[in-house]
Amino acid sequence: MADLSASSDTYSVDSEVMKQFELKSNMSNLHIGITTNDVVIKRIFRALLEPIILFGEGNYERRERLKKLLLSKYDEHFRGKEVELAVSSSAEANNFFEVLRMFNIDMSNLFSKKGRFADFTPFQYDNSETGDRELFYTEGDDSVKHFRTSLAHYAWSRNVKRKMLLHKFRASCDQYEHKDEVENYGNFLTENLSLAFAQLAATRPLTMAKFSPNARYLASSSYNGEISVFDCNDSKYKQVVRLASDSSEMVHCFDWNYNSSHVCYDRTHPTSIADNDLLLVSGGSGGSLTLWKPFSKIKDEEFEMRQHTSRCHESRVNRVVFHPCNNLVASSSADETVVLFDLEKLSELYVQEGHSHSVYGLAINGDGNLIASGDAHGVLLVFDLRTGRHIFQQVVHNADVTGVSFHPLLSHIFATSSSDNSVKIFDLRKFRPITSLLTHTKVVSDLQFEPVYGRFLATSSFDTHVKIWDTSVYKCRKVLTNDDTRVMGVHVSPDATAIVSAGYDRTWRLFKPNSEYKDDSSLYRLLN
């Protein structure tokens, strides 16, 4: 009897250990769907009728307690059961399921068995609450048809070039060697990247700062309605151009032509782009787009630049991006639309609808066939420009989607930033996030993959920091401080030799490595 008792005790201990191990394993994956905002976490506890705060509990402990609570409630109400049957038979299960939907908590990555919880993930759109919401398409004219046809040929040719480059790269370097190369470059940034220069650029807070595609100039926009262009070849970064429109609109965003991906597709170096070929488009607070040619001829030594202004939106323009073909500009706005503007005809091509809230983040992939946009309620839409149909539609964040960035080589990989303090990495082939980064303690204002190689991801935040993450395991490699001011945006130079941040204190800051990196990677040899 003693032996039987001992064996039963051992069995109970082992089963308890296995339960704890499974719980910790599931908790490590559940971070994808849970916000880091402590106010929202307290609301979730209140909705679940659980204690909001325990004595001596901090933000981290409260979030861990929420993880355990969600897992235990799942085990209680849904483990091994059909979701529809469990929800209809229990009021507690129905309340738990509604809380998951309300706060967009995704647990499908943990419980993905067929016919179980994954089939009812709250990240899918639920149109049952609004019976008048339906999918519709607007018929376009012949110009839209011609655009889609020509774009299909353009995107196909770029896709072929990119895949040929990747095939050559994979033939000369396996995934482990590439991971080591990314690791080595990350170590280099950790040891050498630091503040190199800071410049007071405007009389009001900055909204953006970006390098020109030939890496010779740096432009910054401001709430004062002006765009200033500085010479990067000058040791003091002297201002060479000031762009000011006649309207009183604040400049919320801008972008240069010649998308950095042209280095991969056309095998041309950024410095080969002439100053006279540079174009710049800006978006204003009144809904207008302004096209600039900053380095046209200057008359009488005054800053009189050639410009064209067109009102494309009914409200504030939040983001503008050039299409890789350089003939189109896409813009997102608070009027819930995305507009494609034809630069050759200087007219609106068509309006892309689909969002029901203000649209913020906007990006076009390197092939030029996909456009991604995120709105104020965390909804992300990915449209195929060749057909006009959306191929991805999910609630991916618990707050505004502030930025989107596509990987320069892997066109199916893209990242999103949000006001919920997180960054998520997506794989379009899986239609779900592959990882989530708890990047900052406040709003993540912007992000960008390193041009050409995509070895790191730069993120900026209102918590005064710019962070650098490697793209092999998405580990934070460097934290760059910005003198206790919120960072409005971040941008990586086309040659990846510098990073600039735009500060709310009217100053842009330039970060550079202290020494030159001797790049002898397989990808570098293919492109140079």
Automatic annotation (TrEMBL):
GO terms assigned for molecular function: U4 snRNA binding; U6 snRNA binding
Protein name per Swiss-Prot or TrEMBL: U4/U6 small nuclear ribonucleoprotein
InterPro entries listed in its UniProt record: PRP4-like (IPR014906), PRP4-like_sf (IPR036285), WD40/YVTN_repeat-like_dom_sf (IPR015943), WD40_repeat_dom_sf (IPR036322), WD40_rpt (IPR001680)
Entries under Gene3D superfamilies matching the protein: Pre-mRNA processing factor 4 domain, YVTN repeat-like/Quinoprotein amine dehydrogenase
Record bears the keyword Ribonucleoprotein: yes
Biological processes, Gene Ontology terms: mRNA splicing, via spliceosome
Source species taxonomy: Eukaryota, Sar, Alveolata, Apicomplexa, Aconoidasida
Species in which this protein is naturally found: Theileria orientalis strain Shintoku
GO CC annotations, alphabetized: U4/U6 x U5 tri-snRNP complex
Keywords annotated in UniProt: Ribonucleoprotein, WD repeat
WD repeat extents: 310-351, 352-393, 394-436, 437-470
UniProt xrefs under PROSITE patterns: WD_REPEATS_2 (PS50082), WD_REPEATS_REGION (PS50294)
Record-annotated Pre-mRNA processing factor 4 (PRP4)-like domain positions: 36-87
Keyword hit for Ribonucleoprotein: yes
